[in-house]
Amino acid sequence: MRLCLLCFAALALLACKPKPGPAGKSAPRTGPVLARVDDAEITAGDLQEVLNRYAHTPFVLARYSTPEKKKELLDGLIRYELLAREALRRGYDHDPDVQRIAKKQMVALFEKREINDQLRSDDVPVADVEKYYREHPAEFVRPEEVRVSQILVRDESTARRIVAEAKARNQSFRALVESYSQDQDSKPRAGDLMFFDRKTTRVPKAVVEAAFAIPQVNDVAGPVASDKGFHVLRLTERRPEVTRPLAEVKLDIQKRLLDQLRAQRRRELADEARKTIHVEIYEDELAKLTLAATPDGGRPDLHLPSPGPRPSGAPTP
């Protein structure tokens, strides 16, 4: 029970989000007022907002249906308001970390209302979707793929003996994998290497070439030498190259074009603001700067360019 209360207290901290203005007043909420902390009102809508986060967990909603439990939840929101006002009194609103987080949330809200809410999927013309599909055919092709099972051993003579046994069908290939294979990754899957295309890098190049050269499903090939040892291969499936139809990828293309529209609108808003806001760049300091990738430390989202489509060829959001 204590754990549940702590979870709800933490959730209240995230969900209630009072928005004190210059005079410290919170934004109005819906429903009857349940409590006041100075001039801040806590309404039924505040409690409902917290519980809505658990709409997919009926037992939690049922637990907080009694007057006692609703009072516990209200107490959590009151404590939040008290701590928020005490933090303001102590000047935490001037703390650089708080100001950085507030700026990030403010920009996110600005972009949502001024860009995302203004530009929707309907703003992407069907003709533009069709044009993109025609001009980027390679993005919508799923290349030919094969699926093989392997037995990996360290010496060639053993591999040749396994090939002979497999072709003689004296034992199932699965049984041969269990008896001989030294590859601890594929062995639990009966040697299955899953589907791969000609460009894969997770399978040795020699194995890829040999797998695609196997003429029929269930045929066995090998030994194939690689830096891992000697592979005996059995072709289990083959999938031909397939071009995904426009109807299948329409929504993906539409989202990509919508992202481009929103990025363009973001640049336009920034360019417009730059006409009235002074910007000065110190090129000499920039040239001396050394950058390294670090975990996110709360820095703003700079909307860096997308790295492009995934290897499968499908458009990325």
Judged by helices, strands and strand pairing, the structural class is alpha+beta
* Helix coverage percent: 40-55%
Shape: elongated
Low-confidence stretches: 1-28, 305-317
Radius of gyration: 30 Å
**How are the strands of the biggest sheet laid out side by side?**
5-4-7-6
Proportion of residues in β-strands: 5-15%
Major sheet summary line: 4 strands, antiparallel
Overall number of strands? 8
Description:
It is a single chain. With 317 residues, the chain is of the alpha+beta class. It is built from eleven helices and eight strands. The protein has helices at residues 2-15, 44-52, 58-63, 67-89, 96-116, 126-135, 156-168, 173-180, 205-213, 246-274, 283-288, and strands at 33-37, 40-43, 141-142, 145-153, 192-196, 220-226, 229-239, 242-243. It has a four-stranded antiparallel β-sheet with strand order 5-4-7-6. The protein has a two-stranded antiparallel sheet with strand order 1-2.
